[in-house]
Design a protein that fits this description.
With 171 residues, this protein is an alpha+beta fold. The protein folds into two domains: 74 residues, RimP-like superfamily, N-terminal (GMP Synthetase, Chain A, domain 3, 2-Layer Sandwich), CATH 3.30.300; 83 residues, SH3 type barrels (Roll). Helix 1 crosses helix 2.
């Protein structure tokens, strides 16, 4: 639906030194909101969002065929816990903790683990010292997962992946 807009938005993002992460549409009471998610190494700033938002608004004003008039436009970070939809999202999330729901033997399985590898047809998740290969076609939902560092007995902070890393069957 937004292929032309996505290409032009990507060019705008490149101009401002950020990457286009995703474009989404949210239905609200008075119309629709076009959500443009941007990212960059080290995180984005309010200035980054403002610059991209201004240019996208100018673009849409100049070419109303890109979206209809019922849209408001919001530009933001995809967040620390972000949805993974495309292979590029997985590639940029290697060594991060993921929560993923996928099909295995016709059952939904929920898993939390570290993304170790992304291949053309599957990903590899490390969970409880096991490597699990999950074909892209079996993934139903995936997002990055943030767990705040916890103090250890020695007083040092470290991130601990909870026991929930074991694969659990969901109903």
């Amino acid at each position: 639906m937004f292929e032309r807009l996505e290409g032009k938005a990507s060019d705008i993002c490149q101009k401002w030194g950020v990457l286009l992460y995703d474009i989404d549409v949210i239905n609200v009471k008075n119309g629709k909101v076009l959500c443009v998610y941007i990212t960059k190494q080290g995180g984005i700033t309010i200035t980054d969002c403002s610059n991209v938002s201004k240019d996208i608004n100018l673009l849409v004003e100049a070419d109303s065929s890109l979206i209809d008039n019922l849209f408001n436009i919001e530009v933001s970070s995809p967040g620390i816990e972000r949805t993974l939809k495309f292979k590029k999202h997985y590639n940029s999330s290697i060594n991060e903790v993921l929560k993923i729901i996928y099909l295995a033997n016709a059952k939904k399985v929920s898993l939390t683990g570290v993304l170790r590898e992304v291949n053309s047809d599957f990903i590899v998740i490390e969970s409880e010292d096991k490597l699990i290969c999950i074909p892209f076609q079996n993934i139903k939902k995936a997002r990055t997962f943030y767990q705040a560092p916890q103090k250890t007995k020695s007083g040092k902070k470290e991130t601990v992946i909870k026991k929930s890393m074991e694969a659990k069957e969901t109903e």
